[in-house]
UniProtKB/TrEMBL annotation:
Signal peptide start-end: none
Keyword terms of this UniProt record: Oxidoreductase
Source taxon at top rank: Bacteria
CDD domains in the cross-refs: ALDH_F5_SSADH_GabD
Oxidoreductase recorded as keyword: yes
Any coiled-coil regions, as ranges: none
Phylogenetic lineage: Bacteria, Pseudomonadati, Pseudomonadota, Gammaproteobacteria, Pseudomonadales
Alphabetical list of InterPro entries matching this protein: Ald_DH/histidinol_DH, Ald_DH_C, Ald_DH_CS_CYS, Ald_DH_N, Aldehyde_DH_dom, Aldehyde_DH_Superfamily
Official protein name in the record: NAD-dependent succinate-semialdehyde dehydrogenase
The organism of origin for this protein: Pseudomonas putida (Arthrobacter siderocapsulatus)
Amino acid sequence: MMLQSHLFIDGHWIPGSEERYLDVINPANGEVEGRVAHASRYDMDRALAAAERGFKVWKETSVFERSKIMRGAATLLRQRSEEIATLLVAQAGKPLAEARLELASAADVLDWFSEEARRAYGRVISPRSSAVSQQVIKEPIGPAVGFTPWNFPVAQIVRKVGPALAAGCSIIIKGPEEAPAAPVEFFRCLHDAGVPAGVVGLLFGTPAEISGYLVPHPTIRKVSFTGSVPVGKHLASVAGAHMKRATMELGGHAPVIICADANLELAADVLLTTKFRHAGQACVAPTRFLIERSVYSKFIQLYKARCENLVIGDGRDPATTLGPLNSERRLATLQSLIEDAVSKGATLEHGGRRVGTKGFFLEPTILSGVTPDMRVMNEEPFGPLALMVPFDSLDEAIDEANRLPFGLAAYAWTADLRAANKISRSVESGMISTNHFGLAIPETPYGGIKDSGIGSEGGLEAIEAYLNSKFVTQMDPA
Ligand code: NAD
């Protein structure tokens, strides 16, 4: 029987008032894998009313109770992860090992927010008179809405639901229509762990219809979006026009600066996993490999050799290390970026071709001799594509790293502490990781600057985004 994913409104699973469904495609074979309910205006109104009621309940729930319920949901997610991982494989096209990893890390993120919920302290400010007291108290901002994409269907939701619940907010998630089944199971964990009705809601449908109604709606006090820069800019402008707090987690075009003194073997190993995880469909995936000229050819050879070992296939096969792209549309985008670069003189060092005719597979691809006039050097490829660029001085590499309007993740590999410090200080990005991949752990900030977004979805900053600071001052009665 075909898998059906429903909406979660006010503690109930419902098919949607119009009983309309969208097809869900398995990216590994292009076949219809399931169906997902499509929310109507009536469903959205119900979700908003439930979120308003849920907010009143949740903000009055003691932080110890909230924390306990969140920890319980993380435990359920771990217990059910084998079953949920198979849904991620079938609908997001991930290799099984990656699906397991996504769920393990999502449970860790939820655990961390459950702990940090207990530490959302305010502060006392010294008064100018002994008759006066001054304090800053933290209050949940109100019902929130989060829009999450298909690349990490559960983890992206947890990065919004975790801090919202920790802060005492209710939240409606517009989940990914491309991979709805794993998010549905995650919401089942929240419900079964005791999150009260209305505190969390899950909608699917037409993204622009849902954001067009929910973002300006007076019930909603906070908007969080993960996705592409153009959509993020649009939603941020709507949020701004209605004076809503917004967190925007958008695209990147991550530079990685590889100096001649780096441990090249280790760099090639780590960058292989970081680049090709989920077929390169991660906003922090390294894209522009800026390599000191004396080791340029050597590094390309090391990287190519590792690409040969990637096993392309359906994520259900445990041997698979490189799954498909998410959609025919993404495959076509990648192919056109490669064609454009090659037509302008880039060298195809490895891959570049579609694999098979079923599903949306692309070979791991390396382009060298790329120049700034090529589209791929300016647009985020969001796929299994690495661009190799030589540099002669560190300043030149830093200038190239900062050339684009993106500023999400950046990487550096060097044995020289002075170079590492210079890169960390000069590269314009929200996150920079040197000599390892150290991003995306729960306790550290996760977010971009420039066109890559506003705010953070990790660490203390993530909870702060769902809190208001209220200044309270009192004077002793005269
Ligand atoms: P897209 O711009 O069509 O969609 C990106 C996401 O935004 C999807 O989840 C989509 O459902 C949602 N969306 C689109 N229009 C919307 C609207 N009006 N209101 C609310 N949500 C809306 O791009 P795509 O082809 O699906 O994905 C590729 C691009 O998206 C990449 O270039 C990448 O930058 C970005 N992306 C980023 C992340 C991330 O983790 N930051 C994740 C997925 C996609």
